[in-house]
Design a protein that fits this description.
- There is one protein chain.
- A hairpin with a 5-residue loop joins strand 1 and strand 2.
- The protein is about 30% helix and about 15% strand.
- With about 90 residues, the protein is α+β, with helices and mostly antiparallel strands.
- The termini are far apart.
- Strands 1-2 form a two-stranded antiparallel sheet.
- Helix 1 packs across helix 2.
- The chain is built from two helices and two strands, in the order ααββ.
């Protein structure tokens, strides 16, 4: 399983397929379709009240051999909002 996009595309090249590229494209297309975020680009001025966090892709192979990519944000870089903390105990 690749650790980053470059490794994923290299595996596709070595294996002569587009499994990882298709997986990445599907994830990005869905993010754009759902209008999940606004890409303000690198080096943009920070908006007051917001904190910029790093994002990356996580890769996995499912039990049925599907290649899966997920775009994730480093939520560990933000403070936990008090109103959304839940404990089931």
């Amino acid at each position: 399983v690749p650790q980053n996009v470059d490794e994923a595309l290299e595996l596709d090249r070595i294996n002569g397929n587009t499994n990882w590229a298709d997986s990445v494209n599907l994830e990005i297309e869905q993010l754009m379709e759902y209008k999940s975020f606004k890409n303000r680009g690198k080096g943009r001025i920070k908006i007051p009240g917001y904190q910029m966090i790093r994002c990356h892709l996580v890769f996995d192979v499912k039990h049925d051999r599907r290649h899966k990519s997920r775009f994730v944000a480093g939520g560990h870089m933000t403070r936990d909002p008090i109103e959304s903390v839940y404990s089931g105990v």
